[in-house]
Amino acid sequence: MNKEAHLLTTTQFEHYWPAISQDMDKVRHVWEIWWTKEALYETVMGGYINVWAVGSREKIHLILFTQIVHYPANAILKVVLLVGNSLEEYYDIAEATIEKFALDRGCKFMETCAREGFRKRIKNVCYHGALLTRKVGTTKVQ
Questions:
Q1: Against a cut of 0.85, is the pTM above it?
Q2: What is the DSSP annotation of 14-60?
Q3: Mind listing the domains of the chain with CATH numbers?
């Protein structure tokens, strides 16, 4: 099977959006703290986030949302969201494709927020701490 990863145009993204939206519903816990579907859609259509289709010629298995963030010290390609299935099967092609994209745009690092198990899967990763969240108003305010 031929594995492929492609950057989607906004026209292609619009075409696939209904299926992407359905896949997102299966993993709401992964994105709903940061995004609404409407905001994510508008951000992609506005050109602020890139969307990648990963899979075979017959079927898309993964969708990655990436963004290049320019910090004072470095440009960093951030994987904002990943939805789909078959991550183990398509990880290498997805990683190689977005890494080349990052290099071509002057990025020095890539980053993502991921479950603990991903630290073992991603090669040459540095641990910079854990992302901790809590709802506001769950402690007593003085």
A1: yes
A2: HHHHHHHHHHHHTTHHHHTTT--HHHHHHHHHTTSSEEEEEE-SS-E
A3: 4-121 (3.40.630.30)
